[in-house]
# Entry
Amino acid sequence: MIRARKLTLKELIGLIGDPAMNLPGLQSVAAKQRWDVALICGTGDYAASRFAKTVKDFVDSAEKKSNYLVMMRALFHAVQVDNYQKALKDETPVSVKVAHDFKFQSKTVNLWEIKYQNKDRVYFFPVSAGDVRVIFLLMAYHKKDQNTPNEVKTPCTREIKELITGMAEIKFI
Amino acid sequence: MAKSNAEFAAEIKEKAATWGSVRRLDPMLQLKTAMRNKNLKNVDIAERLCVSEANISRILKGRGNVTLDTLYMLADAVETELFISIADADSVAACQGGKPEGGDGEMLTIGDEGSAGTDGIEFFQSPDNVFRLVPRWKQAERYRVHQETGDPEDEALVAFA
# Structure
């Protein structure tokens, strides 16, 4: 069974360690979301999830925090519509693209990335099954070169495989 | 011991470096949400403001630091109202239900009140002699937001409604 936790924008902002400020946008993002945003958290504590750890490791300066905040705010704007990828591209300063793909169970599976500025990225995997539509944030990262490094690909691929094989047993806590 | 102005200055500078981009982006995304609800496109806003669509696209993606005048014009173009408040969350909470119970800070709400059944600005004078001019419906809404966010410090809010 995969344990996951749906998060609010405020909770994601809180992961950068700054006092969570009252963004006026929190008012608008209280609007109905077409997609949920979640983290995989085995222990039940989302602050101890791998995503949270990567935020702590890679989002460690004012500039990186600023970029992370923009990406999260943009994501929570985009998930108000079905086609969140189009909304991200057309309505926000961030872009979204496939960072890596691999074959699994005879299908091509994509690892996606939200990108803002040259180096800061958030990797994610969208799961859409019936009424459940969740964007699983897998990792935050500050890139050092153009290619997606194995440091990202390996753990994200493993987590995506776990999500696909355990899709029927995702428990939101 | 109270913080010195120099300490405040350093803190404000650091906060601006971290939060500046998202502060600029946030009102624009609120406008985009309002545009979506009203089925307005960038080209409509550009034509209403007599500027290029590229310019509007750039502004609405939070690229740039728009003036208050521009923000009000954008709100007009989207047929919405801009509210700017400088408030203490405690005083907002205290004002819920139209019964101020002290607290510090002040709240100024700008904008016409037009919604049926929710219009009317109320003037409150708290024990600390701060007058508050807040429409009743805004109090309840702000209280809800502050309950969700839970930050007790003074802050500036920009919202479209």
Summary: The two ends of chain A are 12 Å apart (CA to CA). DSSP finds six helices and seven strands in chain A. Chain A touches chain B at residues 8, 10, 18-28, 30-31, 62-63, 65-67, 69-70, 73-74, 77, 80-81, 91-93 (CB under 8 Å).
